[in-house]
Design brief:
Low-confidence stretches: 203-225
Structural class: alpha+beta
Largest sheet: 12 strands, mixed
Number of strands: 12
Oligomer: single chain
Shape: elongated
Number of helices: 13
Radius of gyration: 31 Å
Strand content: 5-15%
Order of helices and strands: HHEHHEEHEEEEEEEHHEHEHHHHH
Distance between the termini: 26 Å
Length: 420
């Protein structure tokens, strides 16, 4: 029986190839959707795990996380700089690091921060040293620049027609270890230097704080004044109590209980505190709806392929009537005819399903690689037990589908099959 099936497949190789490709493409579409959605979930969740608590000014929690964790460019409102000093002195805080956005270089975002975040972000440096002067920078693992290279900050981005700062040129002092997050594509510089080149001075008098925040907010929107910076100036990271306005602060609480207390405390007034994981949960709900739509589209494509396969196989059985009649005339039992037709069709569909899983996996790898290259977020493409269940369902459906032409062949009598 097996030899007969293989011989038949060789003889009808063109039609067999079409069946395999139809099934493979329909399966690959569904598999790619599932794998890509899972990769996005895993990658974003792992990126958010790097940060326990994010504090910013009142506004959109989602945008705060997208800007501070995933470094998506967007203007954020500024909170009073005194929040940083309060957090730095809080006994419940292991460390707190300010971050400032707005500048870029060669498509890489420039993030102003302190040596505290630089030391804790990736567990150390892969090469070089942490910045110790205003004119030094530390780059992420995915930044394609070399140590000692120059970085000329541009306000905004080249696509937006940003203006290059002439007040300061950074020199790369070190490179971080890979984190699998968007920060792998970031350039970290002293926030002290960011304040200086944007004309944002520390608040020395309480009565001037309103004016300072107004100036900081204007600069954050891209319309502020340029200042002066000394590339050889030593860092002074003790001026936290009177810091200029800040878009976000990354906080590492000492305990889980401290994290919830801080979150509650800074969710009132002019600030908002969020756990990135909670915000992602809401985004996943929206993503889940989109996934259902894509899965429905993929299922529709698979249903159309199944219908076309049924039509093709019915026509195919009609064309093989004389062959089936000859087999019956030579004494082949009905069960053998059923088995030959069923095995032949099931084999083709099963090969198509296996090929579809392989194509879907490769497509998901390519899409994840493209997304990771632009965002810096590592997106692992992996199979789970859920995919084994999907394969089992598809194979069960293939077994049922293969029974249709087999039943048609089973019911044909030798006289009918050999009738011209």
């Amino acid at each position: 029986m097996i030899r007969f099936i293989l011989s038949d497949l060789r003889r009808l190789w063109a039609g067999s190839l079409v069946v395999v490709l139809l099934v493979a493409l329909a399966t690959a579409l569904g598999v790619c959707v599932v794998l890509q959605e899972r990769a996005l979930r895993l990658g974003s969740a792992r990126a958010a795990d790097k940060f326990d608590l994010v504090i910013g000014a009142g506004g959109s929690e989602t945008q705060l996380v997208l800007s501070s964790v995933f470094l998506q460019p967007s203007p954020l409102p500024l909170m009073p700089g005194e929040v940083l000093g309060k957090l730095a002195a809080d006994l419940r805080v292991d460390w707190a690091a300010p971050i400032g956005f707005g500048d870029s270089f060669s498509g890489y975002p420039i993030i102003g921060t302190t040596t505290t975040l630089t030391q804790n972000l990736s567990g150390g440096l892969a090469e070089g040293k942490i910045f110790a002067r205003e004119g030094e920078a530390v780059i992420g693992a995915a930044v394609k620049l070399s140590l000692g290279g120059e970085i000329k900050p541009m306000h905004g981005s080249l696509e937006e027609g940003g203006e290059t700062h002439t007040e300061l040129v950074y020199h790369i002092a070190g490179r971080l270890r890979p984190t699998g997050t968007a920060w792998d594509r970031a350039i970290l510089v002293p926030i002290q230097a960011v304040w200086h080149i944007h004309g944002m001075e520390a608040e020395e008098h309480e009565e001037d704080s309103g004016h300072e925040h107004e100036k900081a907010g204007a600069d954050h929107d891209g319309h502020g004044h340029h200042g002066k910076a000394d590339p050889d100036a030593a860092l002074d990271e003790t001026l936290t109590a009177g810091a200029p306005g800040l878009p976000a602060i990354l906080v590492k609480p000492k305990t889980i209980a401290d994290a919830y207390k801080l979150r509650q405390e800074y969710r009132s007034g002019n600030t908002v505190a969020v756990f990135p994981g909670e915000v992602l949960t809401n985004l996943y709900a929206t993503l889940g709806d989109a996934k259902q739509i894509l899965v429905a589209v993929a299922s529709g494509a698979q249903a159309l392929v199944a219908a076309s396969l049924v039509l093709v196989t019915v026509i195919h059985i009609g064309q093989r009537r004389r062959q089936i009649g000859a087999l019956r005339a030579f004494g082949a039992p009905r069960g053998a005819i059923f088995g030959i037709v069923w095995l032949e069709f099931f084999f083709l569909v099963a090969v198509g399903i296996a090929l579809g899983f392989a194509l879907g996996y490769v497509a998901a790898l390519i899409l994840s690689g493209m997304f990771s290259q632009t965002s810096g977020v590592a997106m692992p493409v992996v199979f789970t037990r859920e995919d084994v269940g999907l394969a089992a369902v598809l194979l069960a459906f293939a077994a049922i589908l293969a029974a249709l032409p087999a039943v048609l062949a089973y019911r044909q009598s030798p006289a009918q099959a050999l009738r011209v």
